[in-house]
Amino acid sequence: MRTTETSSRQLLVHDVLLISIMGVLAACGLIYEYLLSHYAGRVIGAIETAIYTMIGLMIVSMGLGALAAKLVKDPFTGFAWLEALIAICGVSCILIIATVVSFSAVLPKVIAEIFSLPPDLVPEGGLISLLHELAMLTPYFFGVLIGFLIGMEIPLIARVREHIYGQHLEHNVGTIYGADYIGAGVGAALWVSIMLSLEITEAAVLTAIANLVAGIIFLIYYWINIAGRGLLLGVHGMVLVLALAVYQFGSDWIMRMTDLLYEDPVVYSSSSRYQNLTITERYLGSGRVPVYGFYINGRLQFSSNDEHIYHSMLVYPAMSVADHQSNVLIIGGGDGLALRDVLDFAPKSVTLIDLDRELVEFFSPTLDMEYYRDALVQLNKESLADSRVEIVIGDAFTEVDNLRHQDTIFDAIIVDLPDPSHPDLDRLYSSYFYQRLHGLLSANGVLAVQSTSPYHAKKAFISIGRTISAAGFSHVEQYRQNIPSFGEWGWTVGSKQKISVRQRLQMMESLTPEHSWLTRDLAIAAFEFPKGFFQDEDVRINTLGTNQIYQYHSEAWKSELGLYLD
Protein backbone atom coordinates (compact mmCIF):
# COMPACT_ATOMS: atom_id res chain seq x y z
CA MET A 1 0.00 0.00 0.00
CA ARG A 2 2.78 2.42 0.99
CA THR A 3 4.72 1.52 -2.18
CA THR A 4 1.69 2.37 -4.28
CA GLU A 5 1.29 5.72 -2.49
CA THR A 6 4.97 6.49 -2.99
CA SER A 7 4.74 5.61 -6.65
CA SER A 8 1.68 7.83 -7.08
CA ARG A 9 3.45 10.73 -5.41
CA GLN A 10 6.50 10.28 -7.63
CA LEU A 11 4.33 10.21 -10.73
CA LEU A 12 2.60 13.38 -9.54
CA VAL A 13 5.98 15.08 -9.11
CA HIS A 14 6.98 14.00 -12.62
CA ASP A 15 3.70 15.30 -14.02
CA VAL A 16 3.96 18.65 -12.26
CA LEU A 17 7.55 19.05 -13.44
CA LEU A 18 6.95 18.04 -17.06
CA ILE A 19 3.73 20.01 -17.44
CA SER A 20 5.35 23.09 -15.86
CA ILE A 21 8.35 22.78 -18.18
CA MET A 22 5.99 22.47 -21.14
CA GLY A 23 4.10 25.59 -20.04
CA VAL A 24 7.32 27.60 -19.73
CA LEU A 25 8.55 26.40 -23.10
CA ALA A 26 5.20 27.24 -24.73
CA ALA A 27 5.45 30.78 -23.34
CA CYS A 28 9.00 31.05 -24.68
CA GLY A 29 7.90 29.67 -28.05
CA LEU A 30 5.17 32.26 -28.47
CA ILE A 31 7.51 35.06 -27.44
CA TYR A 32 10.08 33.85 -30.00
CA GLU A 33 7.32 33.93 -32.62
CA TYR A 34 6.25 37.46 -31.72
CA LEU A 35 9.83 38.65 -31.33
CA LEU A 36 10.89 37.41 -34.76
CA SER A 37 7.69 38.73 -36.35
CA HIS A 38 8.21 42.12 -34.73
CA TYR A 39 11.85 42.32 -35.76
CA ALA A 40 11.13 41.03 -39.27
CA GLY A 41 8.67 43.88 -39.75
CA ARG A 42 11.27 46.36 -38.54
CA VAL A 43 14.04 45.01 -40.80
CA ILE A 44 12.06 44.15 -43.93
CA GLY A 45 9.78 47.16 -43.80
CA ALA A 46 6.49 45.63 -45.04
CA ILE A 47 5.26 45.29 -41.47
CA GLU A 48 1.93 43.56 -42.02
CA THR A 49 3.28 41.20 -44.66
CA ALA A 50 6.37 40.35 -42.61
CA ILE A 51 4.42 39.58 -39.44
CA TYR A 52 1.83 37.34 -41.09
CA THR A 53 4.46 35.59 -43.23
CA MET A 54 6.60 34.91 -40.17
CA ILE A 55 3.71 33.52 -38.13
CA GLY A 56 2.57 31.34 -41.03
CA LEU A 57 6.07 29.98 -41.66
CA MET A 58 6.63 29.21 -37.99
CA ILE A 59 3.31 27.36 -37.69
CA VAL A 60 4.10 25.21 -40.75
CA SER A 61 7.62 24.58 -39.43
CA MET A 62 6.23 23.52 -36.06
CA GLY A 63 4.09 20.96 -37.85
CA LEU A 64 7.12 19.63 -39.71
CA GLY A 65 9.07 19.50 -36.46
CA ALA A 66 6.30 17.49 -34.80
CA LEU A 67 6.47 14.98 -37.66
CA ALA A 68 10.25 14.81 -37.47
CA ALA A 69 10.24 14.14 -33.72
CA LYS A 70 9.54 10.45 -34.34
CA LEU A 71 13.06 10.13 -35.79
CA VAL A 72 14.56 10.88 -32.36
CA LYS A 73 15.15 7.50 -30.70
CA ASP A 74 15.92 8.67 -27.15
CA PRO A 75 13.29 11.26 -26.04
CA PHE A 76 15.20 12.22 -22.86
CA THR A 77 18.48 13.00 -24.61
CA GLY A 78 16.72 14.45 -27.62
CA PHE A 79 14.64 16.82 -25.51
CA ALA A 80 17.69 18.01 -23.53
CA TRP A 81 19.61 18.80 -26.74
CA LEU A 82 16.52 20.42 -28.21
CA GLU A 83 16.26 23.01 -25.44
CA ALA A 84 19.94 23.88 -25.73
CA LEU A 85 19.58 24.40 -29.51
CA ILE A 86 16.45 26.54 -29.16
CA ALA A 87 18.15 28.70 -26.53
CA ILE A 88 21.23 29.16 -28.77
CA CYS A 89 19.04 30.24 -31.70
CA GLY A 90 16.87 32.46 -29.53
CA VAL A 91 19.74 34.34 -27.93
CA SER A 92 21.74 34.84 -31.13
CA CYS A 93 19.17 35.21 -33.94
CA ILE A 94 18.61 38.98 -33.59
CA LEU A 95 22.35 39.68 -33.56
CA ILE A 96 22.92 37.50 -36.62
CA ILE A 97 19.99 39.03 -38.53
CA ALA A 98 21.14 42.58 -37.76
CA THR A 99 24.72 41.77 -38.78
CA VAL A 100 23.83 40.04 -42.05
CA VAL A 101 21.33 42.71 -43.12
CA SER A 102 23.65 45.60 -42.22
CA PHE A 103 26.69 44.19 -43.98
CA SER A 104 24.67 43.38 -47.10
CA ALA A 105 23.42 46.98 -47.13
CA VAL A 106 26.89 48.53 -46.91
CA LEU A 107 28.60 46.03 -49.23
CA PRO A 108 28.12 48.22 -52.36
CA LYS A 109 29.75 51.19 -50.58
CA VAL A 110 32.64 49.03 -49.39
CA ILE A 111 33.25 47.73 -52.91
CA ALA A 112 33.05 51.26 -54.31
CA GLU A 113 35.61 52.52 -51.77
CA ILE A 114 38.00 49.61 -52.39
CA PHE A 115 38.00 50.19 -56.17
CA SER A 116 37.61 54.01 -55.95
CA LEU A 117 34.40 53.98 -57.97
CA PRO A 118 32.47 57.23 -58.54
CA PRO A 119 29.02 57.56 -56.87
CA ASP A 120 27.15 56.80 -60.09
CA LEU A 121 28.98 53.48 -60.51
CA VAL A 122 28.30 51.99 -57.06
CA PRO A 123 27.36 48.32 -57.73
CA GLU A 124 23.72 47.68 -56.90
CA GLY A 125 22.33 45.03 -59.25
CA GLY A 126 23.12 41.44 -60.11
CA LEU A 127 24.87 39.45 -57.39
CA ILE A 128 24.94 42.43 -55.00
CA SER A 129 21.17 42.78 -55.21
CA LEU A 130 20.70 39.03 -54.82
CA LEU A 131 22.88 38.94 -51.69
CA HIS A 132 20.90 41.79 -50.15
CA GLU A 133 17.60 40.08 -50.92
CA LEU A 134 18.88 36.85 -49.36
CA ALA A 135 20.03 38.82 -46.30
CA MET A 136 16.52 40.25 -45.94
CA LEU A 137 15.24 36.68 -45.72
CA THR A 138 17.34 35.80 -42.66
CA PRO A 139 14.49 36.60 -40.22
CA TYR A 140 12.39 33.99 -42.03
CA PHE A 141 15.27 31.49 -41.94
CA PHE A 142 15.43 31.74 -38.16
CA GLY A 143 11.64 31.65 -37.94
CA VAL A 144 11.59 28.35 -39.83
CA LEU A 145 14.49 26.92 -37.81
CA ILE A 146 13.12 27.87 -34.39
CA GLY A 147 9.59 26.86 -35.40
CA PHE A 148 10.87 23.42 -36.49
CA LEU A 149 12.67 22.90 -33.18
CA ILE A 150 9.70 24.11 -31.12
CA GLY A 151 7.45 21.71 -33.01
CA MET A 152 9.48 18.75 -31.71
CA GLU A 153 8.92 19.63 -28.05
CA ILE A 154 5.39 18.29 -27.52
CA PRO A 155 5.92 14.85 -29.15
CA LEU A 156 9.18 14.33 -27.24
CA ILE A 157 7.87 15.39 -23.85
CA ALA A 158 4.77 13.23 -24.41
CA ARG A 159 7.06 10.24 -25.03
CA VAL A 160 9.06 11.08 -21.89
CA ARG A 161 5.87 11.08 -19.86
CA GLU A 162 4.75 7.71 -21.24
CA HIS A 163 8.19 6.26 -20.56
CA ILE A 164 7.92 7.33 -16.92
CA TYR A 165 4.47 5.80 -16.57
CA GLY A 166 5.61 2.69 -18.44
CA GLN A 167 2.45 2.58 -20.49
CA HIS A 168 0.45 4.34 -23.17
CA LEU A 169 -1.47 7.24 -21.62
CA GLU A 170 -4.92 7.81 -23.08
CA HIS A 171 -5.04 11.54 -22.36
CA ASN A 172 -1.32 12.23 -22.65
CA VAL A 173 -1.40 14.46 -25.73
CA GLY A 174 -4.41 16.39 -24.42
CA THR A 175 -2.64 17.08 -21.13
CA ILE A 176 0.53 18.29 -22.84
CA TYR A 177 -1.41 20.44 -25.31
CA GLY A 178 -3.39 21.93 -22.43
CA ALA A 179 -0.14 23.01 -20.78
CA ASP A 180 1.08 24.28 -24.15
CA TYR A 181 -1.98 26.46 -24.78
CA ILE A 182 -2.00 27.91 -21.27
CA GLY A 183 1.73 28.61 -21.47
CA ALA A 184 1.27 30.30 -24.85
CA GLY A 185 -1.40 32.53 -23.31
CA VAL A 186 1.01 33.50 -20.52
CA GLY A 187 3.68 34.19 -23.15
CA ALA A 188 1.32 36.50 -25.04
CA ALA A 189 0.54 38.39 -21.83
CA LEU A 190 4.25 38.73 -21.02
CA TRP A 191 4.96 39.99 -24.54
CA VAL A 192 2.32 42.71 -24.36
CA SER A 193 2.94 43.75 -20.76
CA ILE A 194 6.74 43.50 -20.49
CA MET A 195 8.68 42.42 -23.57
CA LEU A 196 7.44 45.16 -25.91
CA SER A 197 8.94 47.84 -23.67
CA LEU A 198 12.39 46.16 -23.56
CA GLU A 199 15.27 46.41 -26.00
CA ILE A 200 14.81 43.58 -28.47
CA THR A 201 18.09 41.88 -27.48
CA GLU A 202 17.07 42.01 -23.82
CA ALA A 203 13.72 40.41 -24.64
CA ALA A 204 15.47 37.68 -26.64
CA VAL A 205 17.96 36.97 -23.86
CA LEU A 206 15.37 36.80 -21.09
CA THR A 207 13.28 34.41 -23.18
CA ALA A 208 16.32 32.25 -23.99
CA ILE A 209 17.33 32.14 -20.31
CA ALA A 210 13.85 30.95 -19.32
CA ASN A 211 14.14 28.35 -22.06
CA LEU A 212 17.60 27.39 -20.82
CA VAL A 213 16.60 27.12 -17.17
CA ALA A 214 13.75 24.78 -18.10
CA GLY A 215 16.23 22.69 -20.06
CA ILE A 216 18.74 22.57 -17.17
CA ILE A 217 16.03 21.51 -14.71
CA PHE A 218 15.02 18.73 -17.08
CA LEU A 219 18.66 17.73 -17.55
CA ILE A 220 19.40 17.53 -13.81
CA TYR A 221 16.15 15.82 -12.81
CA TYR A 222 16.44 13.13 -15.50
CA TRP A 223 20.23 12.93 -15.34
CA ILE A 224 20.33 9.13 -15.26
CA ASN A 225 18.13 8.80 -18.37
CA ILE A 226 20.22 11.14 -20.54
CA ALA A 227 23.21 10.11 -22.64
CA GLY A 228 26.18 12.47 -22.94
CA ARG A 229 24.94 14.44 -19.95
CA GLY A 230 28.36 15.92 -19.12
CA LEU A 231 28.66 17.43 -22.60
CA LEU A 232 25.08 18.65 -22.42
CA LEU A 233 25.67 20.36 -19.08
CA GLY A 234 28.73 22.08 -20.54
CA VAL A 235 26.73 23.23 -23.58
CA HIS A 236 24.00 24.64 -21.33
CA GLY A 237 26.65 26.49 -19.33
CA MET A 238 28.18 27.94 -22.49
CA VAL A 239 24.78 29.09 -23.72
CA LEU A 240 24.15 30.76 -20.36
CA VAL A 241 27.46 32.63 -20.64
CA LEU A 242 26.55 33.63 -24.21
CA ALA A 243 23.16 34.88 -23.04
CA LEU A 244 24.74 37.03 -20.31
CA ALA A 245 27.24 38.44 -22.80
CA VAL A 246 24.48 39.30 -25.27
CA TYR A 247 22.45 40.91 -22.47
CA GLN A 248 25.45 43.07 -21.57
CA PHE A 249 26.75 43.95 -25.04
CA GLY A 250 23.96 42.99 -27.48
CA SER A 251 22.24 46.38 -27.54
CA ASP A 252 25.51 48.14 -28.37
CA TRP A 253 26.17 45.67 -31.18
CA ILE A 254 22.67 46.16 -32.58
CA MET A 255 23.20 49.92 -32.48
CA ARG A 256 26.52 49.57 -34.32
CA MET A 257 24.84 47.45 -36.97
CA THR A 258 21.96 49.92 -37.13
CA ASP A 259 24.46 52.73 -37.69
CA LEU A 260 25.47 51.04 -40.94
CA LEU A 261 21.90 51.33 -42.27
CA TYR A 262 21.75 55.12 -41.85
CA GLU A 263 23.68 57.74 -43.76
CA ASP A 264 24.43 59.62 -40.55
CA PRO A 265 25.68 58.32 -37.17
CA VAL A 266 23.01 57.11 -34.75
CA VAL A 267 23.10 58.99 -31.44
CA TYR A 268 19.99 57.43 -29.94
CA SER A 269 17.97 54.28 -30.52
CA SER A 270 15.29 52.84 -28.29
CA SER A 271 12.07 50.88 -28.49
CA SER A 272 8.85 52.08 -26.96
CA ARG A 273 5.85 49.80 -26.50
CA TYR A 274 4.73 50.63 -30.04
CA GLN A 275 7.74 51.46 -32.19
CA ASN A 276 11.48 51.81 -32.54
CA LEU A 277 12.75 55.40 -32.20
CA THR A 278 16.07 56.46 -33.72
CA ILE A 279 17.90 59.79 -33.85
CA THR A 280 20.77 60.44 -36.26
CA GLU A 281 23.17 63.37 -36.28
CA ARG A 282 24.96 64.94 -39.23
CA TYR A 283 27.90 67.07 -38.16
CA LEU A 284 28.33 70.04 -40.51
CA GLY A 285 31.53 71.50 -39.13
CA SER A 286 32.68 73.78 -36.38
CA GLY A 287 30.20 76.49 -35.47
CA ARG A 288 27.37 75.02 -37.54
CA VAL A 289 24.24 73.45 -36.07
CA PRO A 290 24.09 69.66 -36.64
CA VAL A 291 21.22 68.18 -38.64
CA TYR A 292 19.13 65.65 -36.71
CA GLY A 293 16.99 62.99 -38.34
CA PHE A 294 14.15 61.30 -36.48
CA TYR A 295 13.16 57.78 -37.58
CA ILE A 296 10.33 55.49 -36.52
CA ASN A 297 10.89 51.82 -37.37
CA GLY A 298 13.66 52.83 -39.74
CA ARG A 299 11.58 55.39 -41.67
CA LEU A 300 12.46 59.05 -41.63
CA GLN A 301 9.78 61.17 -39.93
CA PHE A 302 11.55 64.51 -40.16
CA SER A 303 14.93 66.12 -40.66
CA SER A 304 15.67 69.18 -38.55
CA ASN A 305 16.91 71.20 -41.53
CA ASP A 306 13.65 71.06 -43.53
CA GLU A 307 10.88 69.97 -41.13
CA HIS A 308 9.66 73.58 -41.12
CA ILE A 309 8.43 73.07 -44.70
CA TYR A 310 6.31 70.05 -43.81
CA HIS A 311 4.85 71.48 -40.62
CA SER A 312 4.12 74.95 -41.95
CA MET A 313 2.28 73.42 -44.93
CA LEU A 314 0.30 71.17 -42.59
CA VAL A 315 -0.66 73.85 -40.07
CA TYR A 316 -0.68 77.34 -41.61
CA PRO A 317 -3.27 77.05 -44.44
CA ALA A 318 -5.92 75.58 -42.13
CA MET A 319 -5.17 77.76 -39.12
CA SER A 320 -4.93 80.93 -41.22
CA VAL A 321 -8.43 80.58 -42.71
CA ALA A 322 -10.24 79.26 -39.61
CA ASP A 323 -12.70 81.84 -38.30
CA HIS A 324 -11.32 81.31 -34.81
CA GLN A 325 -8.18 79.67 -33.40
CA SER A 326 -9.19 79.41 -29.77
CA ASN A 327 -9.55 75.67 -29.39
CA VAL A 328 -7.42 73.31 -31.52
CA LEU A 329 -7.11 69.53 -31.70
CA ILE A 330 -3.94 67.80 -32.90
CA ILE A 331 -4.04 64.07 -33.63
CA GLY A 332 -0.57 62.52 -33.62
CA GLY A 333 2.33 64.95 -33.69
CA GLY A 334 3.94 63.65 -30.51
CA ASP A 335 7.21 65.37 -31.51
CA GLY A 336 5.58 68.73 -30.73
CA LEU A 337 6.54 70.34 -34.06
CA ALA A 338 3.03 70.79 -35.47
CA LEU A 339 2.04 71.99 -32.00
CA ARG A 340 4.83 74.59 -32.13
CA ASP A 341 3.32 76.09 -35.28
CA VAL A 342 -0.22 75.93 -33.91
CA LEU A 343 0.91 77.91 -30.85
CA ASP A 344 2.01 80.73 -33.20
CA PHE A 345 -1.72 81.50 -33.59
CA ALA A 346 -2.12 82.13 -29.84
CA PRO A 347 -4.89 79.58 -29.16
CA LYS A 348 -6.52 79.45 -25.73
CA SER A 349 -6.22 75.68 -25.56
CA VAL A 350 -4.78 72.81 -27.57
CA THR A 351 -5.55 69.12 -27.11
CA LEU A 352 -2.92 66.73 -28.46
CA ILE A 353 -3.68 63.01 -28.76
CA ASP A 354 -0.79 60.59 -29.28
CA LEU A 355 -0.56 56.86 -28.69
CA ASP A 356 3.07 56.70 -27.60
CA ARG A 357 3.84 58.15 -24.16
CA GLU A 358 7.58 57.51 -24.52
CA LEU A 359 7.68 59.45 -27.78
CA VAL A 360 5.95 62.45 -26.20
CA GLU A 361 8.22 62.31 -23.16
CA PHE A 362 11.31 62.15 -25.37
CA PHE A 363 10.35 65.46 -27.04
CA SER A 364 9.33 67.12 -23.75
CA PRO A 365 11.75 69.29 -21.73
CA THR A 366 13.31 67.75 -18.63
CA LEU A 367 16.38 68.44 -16.50
CA ASP A 368 19.76 67.08 -17.59
CA MET A 369 18.74 66.17 -21.12
CA GLU A 370 21.26 64.70 -23.54
CA TYR A 371 22.50 67.30 -26.03
CA TYR A 372 20.54 65.82 -28.97
CA ARG A 373 17.31 65.76 -26.95
CA ASP A 374 17.91 69.35 -25.92
CA ALA A 375 18.38 70.29 -29.59
CA LEU A 376 15.09 68.63 -30.57
CA VAL A 377 13.19 70.18 -27.67
CA GLN A 378 14.56 73.56 -28.72
CA LEU A 379 13.39 72.77 -32.25
CA ASN A 380 9.80 72.39 -31.03
CA LYS A 381 10.28 75.44 -28.76
CA GLU A 382 9.29 73.36 -25.68
CA SER A 383 5.75 73.33 -27.03
CA LEU A 384 4.78 70.14 -25.17
CA ALA A 385 5.36 71.92 -21.86
CA ASP A 386 3.11 74.90 -22.73
CA SER A 387 0.41 75.44 -20.09
CA ARG A 388 -2.29 75.75 -22.77
CA VAL A 389 -1.65 72.22 -24.00
CA GLU A 390 -3.49 69.16 -22.74
CA ILE A 391 -1.77 65.92 -23.76
CA VAL A 392 -3.91 62.80 -24.03
CA ILE A 393 -2.06 59.50 -24.28
CA GLY A 394 -4.26 57.02 -26.10
CA ASP A 395 -5.61 55.68 -29.37
CA ALA A 396 -7.11 58.58 -31.32
CA PHE A 397 -9.75 56.23 -32.73
CA THR A 398 -11.32 55.86 -29.28
CA GLU A 399 -10.21 59.15 -27.72
CA VAL A 400 -12.17 61.06 -30.35
CA ASP A 401 -15.33 59.41 -29.02
CA ASN A 402 -14.46 60.58 -25.52
CA LEU A 403 -14.19 64.15 -26.81
CA ARG A 404 -17.56 63.84 -28.54
CA HIS A 405 -19.17 62.62 -25.32
CA GLN A 406 -17.78 65.71 -23.59
CA ASP A 407 -19.41 67.91 -26.28
CA THR A 408 -16.03 69.47 -27.05
CA ILE A 409 -15.90 71.63 -30.19
CA PHE A 410 -12.72 72.68 -32.01
CA ASP A 411 -12.03 75.55 -34.38
CA ALA A 412 -9.36 73.56 -36.24
CA ILE A 413 -8.16 69.96 -36.27
CA ILE A 414 -4.65 69.01 -37.41
CA VAL A 415 -4.06 65.33 -38.21
CA ASP A 416 -0.32 64.62 -38.15
CA LEU A 417 -0.22 60.82 -38.37
CA PRO A 418 2.35 58.53 -40.03
CA ASP A 419 1.56 57.23 -43.50
CA PRO A 420 -1.14 54.50 -43.68
CA SER A 421 1.46 51.71 -43.89
CA HIS A 422 -0.41 49.45 -41.46
CA PRO A 423 -4.09 48.46 -41.10
CA ASP A 424 -4.14 49.94 -37.59
CA LEU A 425 -3.32 53.30 -39.15
CA ASP A 426 -5.69 52.77 -42.08
CA ARG A 427 -8.74 53.11 -39.80
CA LEU A 428 -7.53 56.62 -38.92
CA TYR A 429 -7.79 57.42 -42.64
CA SER A 430 -11.34 56.07 -42.99
CA SER A 431 -14.55 57.95 -43.80
CA TYR A 432 -15.91 56.80 -40.42
CA PHE A 433 -13.07 58.50 -38.56
CA TYR A 434 -13.31 61.69 -40.63
CA GLN A 435 -17.07 61.82 -40.00
CA ARG A 436 -16.39 61.84 -36.28
CA LEU A 437 -13.81 64.61 -36.72
CA HIS A 438 -16.41 66.51 -38.74
CA GLY A 439 -18.69 66.33 -35.70
CA LEU A 440 -15.98 67.84 -33.48
CA LEU A 441 -15.51 70.92 -35.68
CA SER A 442 -17.22 74.23 -35.11
CA ALA A 443 -19.63 75.62 -37.73
CA ASN A 444 -16.79 77.17 -39.74
CA GLY A 445 -14.05 74.78 -38.64
CA VAL A 446 -11.17 73.50 -40.79
CA LEU A 447 -9.48 70.09 -40.89
CA ALA A 448 -5.90 69.52 -42.18
CA VAL A 449 -4.56 66.01 -42.82
CA GLN A 450 -1.10 64.71 -43.68
CA SER A 451 -1.78 62.82 -46.92
CA THR A 452 1.43 61.01 -48.04
CA SER A 453 3.22 61.69 -51.34
CA PRO A 454 1.11 62.57 -54.41
CA TYR A 455 4.09 61.54 -56.54
CA HIS A 456 5.08 58.20 -54.99
CA ALA A 457 1.63 57.13 -53.78
CA LYS A 458 -0.81 58.97 -56.04
CA LYS A 459 -3.85 56.71 -55.50
CA ALA A 460 -3.44 56.78 -51.73
CA PHE A 461 -3.18 60.59 -51.85
CA ILE A 462 -6.28 61.01 -54.01
CA SER A 463 -8.20 58.46 -51.94
CA ILE A 464 -7.55 60.47 -48.78
CA GLY A 465 -9.08 63.54 -50.41
CA ARG A 466 -12.12 61.64 -51.68
CA THR A 467 -12.59 59.93 -48.32
CA ILE A 468 -12.63 63.27 -46.51
CA SER A 469 -15.17 64.55 -49.09
CA ALA A 470 -17.38 61.53 -48.33
CA ALA A 471 -17.31 62.51 -44.64
CA GLY A 472 -19.50 65.56 -45.30
CA PHE A 473 -17.13 68.54 -45.56
CA SER A 474 -18.35 71.47 -47.68
CA HIS A 475 -15.03 71.96 -49.43
CA VAL A 476 -12.11 69.52 -49.72
CA GLU A 477 -8.87 70.50 -51.44
CA GLN A 478 -5.42 68.99 -51.73
CA TYR A 479 -2.05 70.65 -52.07
CA ARG A 480 1.62 69.72 -52.26
CA GLN A 481 5.15 70.95 -51.69
CA ASN A 482 8.65 69.62 -52.19
CA ILE A 483 10.57 68.67 -49.05
CA PRO A 484 14.24 67.90 -49.71
CA SER A 485 14.30 64.95 -47.27
CA PHE A 486 11.16 63.35 -48.72
CA GLY A 487 10.55 64.72 -52.20
CA GLU A 488 7.07 65.87 -53.15
CA TRP A 489 4.61 65.62 -50.26
CA GLY A 490 0.91 66.29 -49.95
CA TRP A 491 -1.80 67.46 -47.57
CA THR A 492 -5.59 67.73 -47.56
CA VAL A 493 -7.85 70.40 -46.09
CA GLY A 494 -11.57 70.04 -45.48
CA SER A 495 -13.72 72.91 -44.27
CA LYS A 496 -17.31 73.64 -43.28
CA GLN A 497 -17.03 77.17 -44.66
CA LYS A 498 -19.04 78.56 -47.58
CA ILE A 499 -15.93 79.24 -49.64
CA SER A 500 -12.87 77.07 -50.08
CA VAL A 501 -9.60 77.34 -48.19
CA ARG A 502 -7.79 78.36 -51.35
CA GLN A 503 -10.27 81.18 -51.98
CA ARG A 504 -9.93 82.33 -48.37
CA LEU A 505 -6.15 82.45 -48.77
CA GLN A 506 -6.51 84.48 -51.97
CA MET A 507 -8.62 87.02 -50.08
CA MET A 508 -5.84 87.56 -47.53
CA GLU A 509 -3.03 90.06 -48.04
CA SER A 510 -0.55 87.88 -46.15
CA LEU A 511 -0.38 85.07 -43.66
CA THR A 512 -1.08 86.16 -40.11
CA PRO A 513 1.01 85.51 -38.14
CA GLU A 514 3.86 85.57 -40.63
CA HIS A 515 5.99 82.48 -41.05
CA SER A 516 9.75 82.52 -41.50
CA TRP A 517 9.50 80.40 -44.68
CA LEU A 518 5.91 80.06 -45.94
CA THR A 519 4.17 82.95 -47.69
CA ARG A 520 0.56 83.43 -48.78
CA ASP A 521 1.48 83.17 -52.48
CA LEU A 522 3.52 80.02 -51.92
CA ALA A 523 0.62 78.43 -50.04
CA ILE A 524 -1.82 79.31 -52.85
CA ALA A 525 0.53 77.96 -55.53
CA ALA A 526 0.72 74.64 -53.67
CA PHE A 527 -2.89 73.90 -54.69
CA GLU A 528 -1.91 73.62 -58.36
CA PHE A 529 -1.53 70.13 -59.90
CA PRO A 530 -0.74 68.89 -63.41
CA LYS A 531 -3.62 68.68 -65.88
CA GLY A 532 -5.78 65.61 -65.35
CA PHE A 533 -4.10 64.65 -62.07
CA PHE A 534 -7.40 63.95 -60.25
CA GLN A 535 -9.24 62.28 -63.15
CA ASP A 536 -8.47 58.68 -62.13
CA GLU A 537 -11.94 57.15 -61.83
CA ASP A 538 -10.69 53.91 -60.27
CA VAL A 539 -9.62 55.48 -56.95
CA ARG A 540 -12.04 54.48 -54.20
CA ILE A 541 -12.81 56.03 -50.85
CA ASN A 542 -11.62 54.26 -47.72
CA THR A 543 -14.46 52.90 -45.60
CA LEU A 544 -13.80 51.29 -42.25
CA GLY A 545 -12.58 47.71 -42.61
CA THR A 546 -11.70 47.81 -46.31
CA ASN A 547 -8.05 48.86 -45.77
CA GLN A 548 -8.30 50.60 -49.15
CA ILE A 549 -5.81 53.38 -48.48
CA TYR A 550 -3.41 50.94 -46.84
CA GLN A 551 -3.55 48.81 -49.99
CA TYR A 552 -3.01 51.80 -52.28
CA HIS A 553 -0.11 53.00 -50.17
CA SER A 554 1.51 49.58 -49.84
CA GLU A 555 1.24 48.80 -53.56
CA ALA A 556 2.64 52.20 -54.53
CA TRP A 557 5.71 52.04 -52.32
CA LYS A 558 6.43 48.42 -53.20
CA SER A 559 6.32 49.35 -56.86
CA GLU A 560 8.42 52.45 -56.30
CA LEU A 561 11.06 51.10 -53.94
CA GLY A 562 10.98 47.32 -54.20
CA LEU A 563 9.30 44.29 -52.66
CA TYR A 564 10.64 44.71 -49.15
CA LEU A 565 9.63 48.30 -48.53
CA ASP A 566 6.22 49.75 -47.83
TrEMBL record:
Residues bound to spermidine: 311, 335
Biological-process GO terms, alphabetical: spermidine biosynthetic process
NCBIfam families on file: PRK03612.1 (NF002956)
Family label: Belongs to the spermidine/spermine synthase family.
Function: Catalyzes the irreversible transfer of a propylamine group from the amino donor S-adenosylmethioninamine (decarboxy-AdoMet) to putrescine (1,4-diaminobutane) to yield spermidine.
Principal location class: membrane
Pathway listed: Amine and polyamine biosynthesis; spermidine biosynthesis; spermidine from putrescine: step 1/1
This protein's name: Polyamine aminopropyltransferase
Pfam families hit by this protein: Spermine_synth (PF01564)
